[in-house]
Amino acid sequence: MKASELRELGREGIRRRLAELEDELLKLKLRRATEELPNPLRLRVLRREIARCHTVLRELELKESEGRNA
């Protein structure tokens, strides 16, 4: 999911998406310990999507705090 698509979701939508991604990442990490993953690159994609979510949330926080200070 692109950052622009995340921004359209809003804060709660991003948090829900983030929780889903972190849950999926945890499940894949546990599965990797016991068996071979069908798509090991999915781990990298998930980590990057999680980072993207955190980045967009931080942008929203900064924009909000900037509005209060002005």
UniProtKB/TrEMBL annotation:
Family indicated by similarity: Belongs to the universal ribosomal protein uL29 family.
Pfam families in alphabetical order: Ribosomal_L29
Entry protein name: Large ribosomal subunit protein uL29
Coiled-coil region list: 11-63
MF-aspect GO terms: structural constituent of ribosome
Keywords: Coiled coil, Ribonucleoprotein, Ribosomal protein
Keyword Translocase: no
Cellular component terms per the entry's GO annotation: ribonucleoprotein complex; ribosome
Keyword Ribonucleoprotein: yes
GO biological process: translation
Entries under InterPro entries matching the protein: Ribosomal_uL29 (IPR001854), Ribosomal_uL29_sf (IPR036049)
Naturally occurring in which organism (per UniProt): candidate division WOR-3 bacterium
